[in-house]
Amino acid sequence: MHALVERLYPLCRSITGDGVRATLDIVGEHLELEVHEVPTGTQVLDWTVPREWNIRDAYVKDPSGTRVVDFRRSNLHVVGYSVPVSAVMTLDELRPHLHTLPEQPGLVPYRTSYYAETWGFCLSQDTLDGMGPGPYEVVIDSTLADGHLTYAEHVVRGRTDEEVLISCHVCHPSLANDNLAGIAVATALAGRLREPRHTYRFLFAPGTIGAITWLARNRERTGRVRHGLTLACAGDPGALTYKRSRRGDAPIDRVMTAVLRDRPHTVVDFAPYGYDERQFCSPGFNLPVGSLTRTPYAGYPEYHTSGDDVGFVSPEAMADTLDALWAAVQVLERDGRYQNLSPYGEPQLGRRGLYGSLGGRSDTKQAQMAMLWVLNLSDGDHGLLDIAQRSGLPFGAVAEAAGALEGAGLLKRVGEGG
Amino acid sequence: MHALVERLYPLCRSITGDGVRATLDIVGEHLELEVHEVPTGTQVLDWTVPREWNIRDAYVKDPSGTRVVDFRRSNLHVVGYSVPVSAVMTLDELRPHLHTLPEQPGLVPYRTSYYAETWGFCLSQDTLDGMGPGPYEVVIDSTLADGHLTYAEHVVRGRTDEEVLISCHVCHPSLANDNLAGIAVATALAGRLREPRHTYRFLFAPGTIGAITWLARNRERTGRVRHGLTLACAGDPGALTYKRSRRGDAPIDRVMTAVLRDRPHTVVDFAPYGYDERQFCSPGFNLPVGSLTRTPYAGYPEYHTSGDDVGFVSPEAMADTLDALWAAVQVLERDGRYQNLSPYGEPQLGRRGLYGSLGGRSDTKQAQMAMLWVLNLSDGDHGLLDIAQRSGLPFGAVAEAAGALEGAGLLKRVGEGG
Amino acid sequence: MHALVERLYPLCRSITGDGVRATLDIVGEHLELEVHEVPTGTQVLDWTVPREWNIRDAYVKDPSGTRVVDFRRSNLHVVGYSVPVSAVMTLDELRPHLHTLPEQPGLVPYRTSYYAETWGFCLSQDTLDGMGPGPYEVVIDSTLADGHLTYAEHVVRGRTDEEVLISCHVCHPSLANDNLAGIAVATALAGRLREPRHTYRFLFAPGTIGAITWLARNRERTGRVRHGLTLACAGDPGALTYKRSRRGDAPIDRVMTAVLRDRPHTVVDFAPYGYDERQFCSPGFNLPVGSLTRTPYAGYPEYHTSGDDVGFVSPEAMADTLDALWAAVQVLERDGRYQNLSPYGEPQLGRRGLYGSLGGRSDTKQAQMAMLWVLNLSDGDHGLLDIAQRSGLPFGAVAEAAGALEGAGLLKRVGEGG
User: Fold this and answer.
1) Which residues are recorded as binding Zn(2+) (chains A, B, C) (predicted)?
2) HEC-encoded secondary structure of A242-294
3) Residues of chain B found within 8 Å of residue A222, distances taken between Cβ atoms
4) Which of B113, B223, C57, C359 qualifies as a FRET site for C209, CA 20 to 30 Å off?
């Protein structure tokens, strides 16, 4: 996963343009992607697909001919969606177009201006402090023209049409945690799935406008989304954070809470700010989509700065995120509501070889406890995750007990968990 | 407000009589009052309006001719509703009619006997300890005769018939916190209201029998009471206390809890003891009426003693009570449920000038967060107070966001808050 | 109660056989019992009544003729339901049939093997460590043959058919806390009941198979069980423990929680392990049956060992268990929902002699507070236990207030509590 992050890092992504296409090409080497190109001007919900932005070069050259700000060194140096510029300006004239982080003087900020026509450069405060009065040659060799918005889907067909939506944004330039780590973990998760019960849909799309475009073009499909996660900031050193869906009690909320219980983690309530859960959880859709991150949105000093580089994300952290996701997939795949077919009194497990025969001992095993719990709560109202939570037993033990009891004809699956 | 307390303090109020009339006359200098006179013998719910009590003088004169207990010095010295007496008695004979507070020997207690025909004097234990064997001249120059029970209403008409009931009792003699401060704060609040949405009804009535009389004569009107508060003990040095309505989850309960959140305060559950919330919250009416006090009923040593004098209440405390009430009025007036008219995805706020156009910054302002929260939760089920509480944003910011969004055609009011 | 425990202690009980019959004979000296004999082979729910087991003698005799393990010294020495044996074996051959507690080397464990045909001896690790290589004479003089399963009921008829089920198991041999103390406390409780409102059914039956047999033969009657408790481990030095019914919010759960509130105690959620609440709370029946113990199932080191002897249970502990049960019976008998017949405003209690007539005092008595609470919450929705809990008043005070108000014509009983 870390190699994928390193490879994607130099590309200049934005909400449209060739950077997104190049990114999807690389992801497409790992996963079969369906790539969608949506023309500029297309109405998508309350929004319109904007003009496509591409950039070749940009710099601020001082009187000695030195590029003091240089797009080639880092694509963060240009405000995203900057219109073309070619001018000579004094520092005073240039100043309103320069963005720095005075409190983090060594870092370059990340700025965009998608929907207001402007241009600008981002640089460290240290660089700015060293700049003389000029004049400066100021060039942004960009184009802002009719074109397309690009996004991609990877679908792992399941035995049912019920979908699990995993979404990550692909519109940030050289920022590793936000969101190349998310792209890498989603790619790895997709690669692991084999003949699942649910259909898993991975969405690689630009933030906000990409999610809105997907929603606009898939309105009828949203009814199939049973569970969903936006995935971002998946590789920083912090603990995992799950942000609940707007519903707050959706199955995915309970699953993620259960999966994270035994790891360092935080669970926070939904708020209409953050990543594309904002769109999926808008009140008209109100999809059961939560958000999984490590340190959440805007919660670390490197957030949206040049400090969010490939060294900021670690293979270990991404593996931990993937592991938690995999555990969640296990629960989503195996959870279900069952009916005890012998609900009057306990069935005689010993006769069926399901119970140790020598009574009177207090060291009854976890497997036997799991069978008793599954039998007791399988009244059609409780799913296996419910039973795991109420009993304090691991979900896996409960799922195995259900399997054994189903095999013995004592249990019948009657519906989804949750 | 403190000047009003000082002016009302010397009057000898009881549940009937000229002291109540004189009190309402003075309040009537500040507010337009409708004064009601209800004849003795009138059946009111399970009760009957009692005879009217008036008193001119009362004393216990020692053998030297000195008034050792003197109604003219403090009207607390006579047990309320004492029948007339004119006798010469030894201390031993008088003793069963004398009430003191042995544990607060310097204070005179407050006692009444409305519904059992008797008489008595209240005095400090110190005074009693200094009294010789007598004989004493014992005089209570009172009358207990057919007359009227007096109460008054002040109504601020609103744009709707939905009423907010603010009730305070006017039956206590020289006790400043209980309840002259309540009368003063209610009077000040009434004077502040200008063309409100709700109709505000201020009730100045004797405790218990006055509230019961009002309820008996306004049975059909009680259905209009959407929110209510009994107001008492509004000027002591303690923190504010809100006692929930019997319902426990009425809008007024949520409003007061929200308003008090950022002040020192206590919130307590309903109990069928205290002030006239007992009557408003009797199970047949079960009105959404809570109780606002500072230190609650019987919770301070000066309670129902001569220690509850004009020095015990402060202008600052009364101003703080009024301020909290005013904040509650703001919420009652501005709360409401709205419908997001663009609920699929977020509407594009930038295009409508509602959003800062330079993205990528993490210091999104409170106003923008408030807009996102209002949009996200305006599904017809959540009121603005709900949204303020769930988001942790100030109610005012949320209400302003709703106004801006309504102005932009993105929101429509669909009902009351709460 | 302790004398009963001492008398029952030496009998060799199992899930069938003469030990159970002798136990019920002794209980029958205190209570009128209906004894049921259910033939071997009878189908009971998912189970079959097993063959009857009886034992006369058993021992392991060493080469010197000494009985190193001797059933006559303690019936725990033989694994319950051991088939007959008569053999000479070396220690190595005998070893697989010997059960000890290596971590409690001085104690003899309790073991059974009801449904797998085998035999064995239980002994202390200390005894085993002192045994030479043999050969040993090994004898179990038992019979395992068609016969009956025996259980008994004692019923105290109430004024209604609604039943309270008190169940205790009678299948353990010489174990005092588990469950002779339970039998003794149940017997004492039954003896105390006089013309109750509910019908009380006491069930003395072997664990698991006995409860299953009763359920199989009384399916239609289970609908009458309004409240129930399994009673076990009633005499150890630990604090009382109440385990909630599977429903978790049944009236018995609320009653027991209230009754235990002012004693050292623990309340735990239902789990499908423990005593016969497992059967009563199986999902098909889901009866409102909780479990009352002192230290719970398997929670003390003496559990299922020779350490659980008559010295382990105390008269004081059994009296405390009985006292808590008796308090619960008081609530079950006296709880109810009432309707305030004068619900508009407070009724005038003073006129009816129900209220102190001298007002203005803050030391209103508990009895008067109880009346106000009962009047306020008697809207048909709240029972007296609800009112006691919400007011913080003792249940007895609330029940007395309800009685006084009913006597004054202010209240009418409209239904069960809970």
Assistant:
1) 172, 178, 304
2) EECCCCCCCHHHHHHHHHHCCCCEEEECCCCCCCCHHHHCCCCCCCCEEEEEC
3) none
4) C57
